[in-house]
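Training component of the fellowship. As part of building independent skills, the fellow (R.M.) carried out the full modelling exercise for a liganded target. The chosen ligand was adenosine-5'-triphosphate. The inputs are recorded below so that the supervisory panel can assess the work.
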Amino acid sequence: MKRVLSGIRATGRLHLGNYLGAVKGMLELQNSSDYETFYMVADVHTITTPYNIEELRKNRREVILDYLATGLDPAKSVIFQQSEVNEHLELAFYLSSVTTIAKMQHLPTFKEKVKQYPDHATLALLNYPALMAADILLYKAELVPVGIDQEPHLEIAREIARRFNQDYSTDFPEPQRFKTTGEYIPSLTGEGKMSKSVEGSYINLTDDLGTVRKKVRSIPTATTAGGEKTGGIKVLFDLLSLFDKENVNKFDEEFNAGTLQFVALKDAVAEAIFAELKPMQEKRKEFDNNPELVDRIISEGNEKARKVAEQTIDEVRQKMGLK
Ligand code: ATP
Ligand code: MG
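Fellow's submitted model of the complex:
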């Protein structure tokens, strides 16, 4: 059976971008009998940018609750915490021995995070792609359901796998990204992508209708309709086509005719989004009310992940001459 791995940083609750770009693909692969799926909360990745200790502790749980709310199922997927499987860190160090500094420094994701946190251009941040390669290769995963922003990291993971296989005769597959239709969800500000760590950019899966409506209404739009769709207007139409496809033509025609009332479009988008979120929120409540069950799901997931990870690390240590 082919293996699948994906993860989400413990930097906040999940938003629409995480759901459409990553989780939808995770669900699709989980529900196909051709794959063995490993889904983690990437709490170690969280420490590559400045963070608050208590927030991290809280968010690593929130991400798991969001996973369960969306339908990730411990009977079908291994749901676990990255930090509980030490082999991720161990393999990341071994892989960093076939990774050049120059290559890492030129990555757009590295440059963006340095721009976001100019005083935190650390070795850990530079090494982020090696840790991500380790996450994937540890399970010899062939498919990785993640958004398009992660494509450069996957390219690095493939290069690392190739190089490592050449040098040490390992058999790591070259992992491919599993794409979804929502692989890039723009920020509500109209600039850049929706991100957990960018305030005002996102709609959470746990937002109530009032909050969703308020956030969608805050998307900047022009005063009159017509012309080219830019910034916020493009965001609205992107969201409309993802959540309320049937109404795209109608609003498109109104936009082109210059008769579109933006508030009507915004409220239609908000309602369509909330209709999809509501059942998840109900499911989340059930898990939230049963903390022992969630604890058990996590500890069993960690245990299953460790079993696979130990095998790979053992093989790598042998082949590298460390054993
Ligand atoms: P942070 O700001 O802390 O980096 P994030 O919102 O970028 O948070 P990540 O944890 O880095 O989320 O990414 C988790 C998954 O969600 C990845 O697969 C990533 O590609 C995907 N993803 C993140 N943002 C978007 C987006 N705007 N559109 C589509 N997919 C996204
Ligand atoms: Mg990110």
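The panel noted the following from the submitted structure. The beta strands are 2-9, 35-42, 77-81, 143-144, 176-177. The chain has a mean pLDDT of 96.
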